[in-house]
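Recall the central idea of this unit: under ordinary conditions, the amino acid sequence of a chain determines the structure it adopts. In this exercise we apply that idea directly, starting from the sequence alone.
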Amino acid sequence: MDTFLLFLLVGLLAQAVDGALGMAYGVISTSVLLAFGVPPATASASVHGAEVFTTAASAGSHVAHRNVDWRVFVPLAAAGMIGGALGAYVLTGIDGDAVKPFIIAYLAVIGAWILWRTRKGRETRRMRPAWITAPLGLVGGLFDAIGGGGWGPTVSSTLMGAGAEARRVIGTVNSAEFLVTCTISATFVWALLTGRWSDVGALHDHAAAVGGLVVGGLIAAPFAGHIVKRVPQRALSYAVGGLLICLSIFQGLQVAGVVA
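Accordingly, the structure predicted from this sequence is:
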């Protein structure tokens, strides 16, 4: 029960941050799971299983409030689904211990990127969504599956930096994330059924953690719009970037054998 409550809190806080920034539920949840010794493929599958529910709630809210740009949504979601399926396929076929250092480095880079963008402020360079959306979705889906999170930091940050309206970006990217998450989860299920995923047994050991992530995320998801209005986004950005870097350092020390 203690594990369930702990991850309920993690899921609630991660979804609260995600609702305000359009990113970070996946990377925060995955970082905490990896810090608890969960194998990378199991961590990614667990987080995406939880996100099927939380992204559905978030997407429904954004669609209801007309925050979705459907012209951008279609190519973004389609490319993200392809990248997500490819990333999940790659992740389930390799040794978890071998890939963990790369995942830790990836999460640290994401954290540093968030801090750098927050300190730098508004990006002045503009890009055209018409030609950047599909490749961006492909990369975002790939990183999201391999890292257990990364769709928001990769896609939302780039589109915002291109000068797009923040409300439209967060609404469109979060809504597309539901389809990307479902695709990644389906790929993990396929890997399980075909025997490609060898360490799937670890899922049973972390059922309480996954349940906590789902419940916590669902509690926070309906309040995303309120959070965006009330909490200073600059402060949240610094908090997310700093947390990811601290968790990455801790996990790096674990891999190095410095801490248990």
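Residues 2-256 form one domain.
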